[in-house]
Specification:
Elements (H helix, E strand, L loop, with lengths): L19 H17 L2 H17 L8 H11 L29
Length: about 100
């Protein structure tokens, strides 16, 4: 006895691709989210915006991801706070010691 499954629907049409400038804007919003939103929430926003930019086309029509990018870019970073850690996979820059040395 074999079970026959229906064939998957045929894919027709081409989804619109994001313009290069839009991809750059989503990536900029993703990096900004890691700087201004602390902890796992910032990391989650970063992943979502990066995936949206990398995926390359609009896969939903509710406008949630574009609204998220606008909201993140509207958050001003506090210049008094220290710099955020570098993205994963990038080494931490060395700290320079500016104390005079005895000779």
């Amino acid at each position: 006895m074999s079970t026959l499954l229906p064939a998957p629907p045929e894919v027709t049409g081409v989804l619109p691709r994001l313009a290069f400038q839009e991809q750059r804007r989503y990536r900029a919003a993703a990096l900004h989210a890691r700087r201004v939103v602390p902890g796992p929430v910032g990391e989650l926003i970063h992943r979502e915006l990066t995936a949206y930019a990398d995926f390359g086309y609009r896969f939903s029509n509710d406008g949630l991801v574009p609204r998220l990018a606008v909201a993140v870019l509207a958050i001003e970073s506090d210049p008094a706070t220290p710099d955020s850690p570098p993205p994963f996979g990038m080494p931490t820059p060395p700290r320079l010691c500016l104390r005079p040395t005895a000779r």
